[in-house]
């Protein structure tokens, strides 16, 4: 009888006095301060000063929490600041993607949170609208416009994920990345030119520390391809 009463009391407990927005904000703070590996339901409950089971009123598990975070991470991004009216769509998209990368780099572990997630939240949709508008104004058809959105945003997100990951186990443990790259260049230079003629020829460039140049090279080639695609359609 007493056990039944206790069970009924447990079932009738009211929803904790927090909001989904508060949960998301606390998760963002924890992510920025402690990183993705430290973000757990228990850690988040501590951040909110509630019991961990109370979180399940709002999110069923960590994956659902990451879905919320993937959109919330983009709340302060302002791609619309780069909208142009002079018809220079290439510069417009380039500036947007440069802004996107810089923004993601300012948000700890953002590349890991965003990787592989189909985002349909309000913040992503706002940015998608801006990018799609730039591509459509350039004259691309609907299929090319949709594919361009994926190509551009996934290039940036993938690159950020790459550049924020440790170069090696030693670097992950605290070794100097520049020293690691120096050693990598020396190792590549010491390879047999008979066995690896192409690697040896460009080895110093493969291990160069200028990741900014590497990013812009890839972005520019992607935009060049879009321009060629548009020009070929115009000729047809």
From TrEMBL:
Q: In this protein, which residues make up the domain named HTH tetR-type?
A: 17-77
PROSITE patterns in UniProt: HTH_TETR_1, HTH_TETR_2
One GO biological-process annotation of the entry reads: response to antibiotic
Keyword Transcription annotated: yes
Instruction: List UniProt keywords, sorted A-Z.
Output: DNA-binding, Repressor, Transcription, Transcription regulation
Note the superkingdom of the native organism: Bacteria
The protein here is known as Transcriptional regulator, TetR family
Q: Which organism is it from?
A: Streptomyces formicae
């Amino acid at each position: 009888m007493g056990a039944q009463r206790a069970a009924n009391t447990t079932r009738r407990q009211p929803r904790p006095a927090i909001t989904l927005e508060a949960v998301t904000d606390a998760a963002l703070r924890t992510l920025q301060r402690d990183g993705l590996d430290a973000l757990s339901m228990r850690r988040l409950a501590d951040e909110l000063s509630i019991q961990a089971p109370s979180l399940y009123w709002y999110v069923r598990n960590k994956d659902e929490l990451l879905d919320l975070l993937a959109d919330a991470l983009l709340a302060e991004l302002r791609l619309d600041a780069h909208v142009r009216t002079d018809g220079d769509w290439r510069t417009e998209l380039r500036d947007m993607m440069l802004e996107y990368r810089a923004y993601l780099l300012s948000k700890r572990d953002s590349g890991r949170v965003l990787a592989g997630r189909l985002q349909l939240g309000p913040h992503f949709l706002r940015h998608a609208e801006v990018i799609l508008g730039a591509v459509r104004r350039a004259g691309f058809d609907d299929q090319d416009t949709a594919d361009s959105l994926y190509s551009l945003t996934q290039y940036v997100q993938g690159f950020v994920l790459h550049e924020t990951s440790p170069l090696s186990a030693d670097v992950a443990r605290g070794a100097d990345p520049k020293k690691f790259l120096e050693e990598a260049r020396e190792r590549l230079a010491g390879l047999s030119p008979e066995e690896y003629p192409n690697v040896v020829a460009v080895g110093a460039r493969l291990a160069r520390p200028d990741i900014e140049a590497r990013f812009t090279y890839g972005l520019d080639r992607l935009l060049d391809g879009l321009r060629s695609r548009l020009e070929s359609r115009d000729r047809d």
